[in-house]
Specification:
The longest helix has 13 residues, at 72-84. This protein has one domain. The protein is α+β, with helices and mostly antiparallel strands and 96 residues long. The chain has helices spanning 14-25, 56-62, 72-84, 90-93; strands at 31-36, 39-44, 63-68.
Length: 96
């Protein structure tokens, strides 16, 4: 079983986990954008505690979306549309 982000050194650090937890519990919206060779994972912050130590299969299951690194222009376009447009509430609505 492959574990891309086994610990706080290669995954989310303690300070990042604390910040994400605090922000989400205060009603904020946090997205984790993580990449491995070939895949970009978009994971909601509510799943941050499960991120470190998750297998590739676990990351796929908790991802809102995965993007192929083989087409970085498409991935950048999707991320720009989904995460940078201020009136795009689709991502938020899927988790609340």
């Amino acid at each position: 079983m492959r574990v891309p982000f086994p610990d706080e050194e290669k995954g989310l650090h303690k300070s990042q986990l604390r910040w994400i937890r605090d922000d989400v519990s205060a009603g904020g919206v946090v997205w984790i954008i993580a990449e491995t060779p070939g895949i970009i994972y978009i994971i909601h912050g509510k799943d941050a505690a499960k991120f470190n130590g998750a297998s590739h299969e676990d990351l796929l299951e908790m991802s809102w979306e995965t993007l192929s690194r083989k087409d970085p222009k498409q991935a950048a376009s999707i991320l720009d549309t989904a995460l940078r447009v201020s009136d795009n509430y689709r991502l938020y609505a899927e988790y609340y």
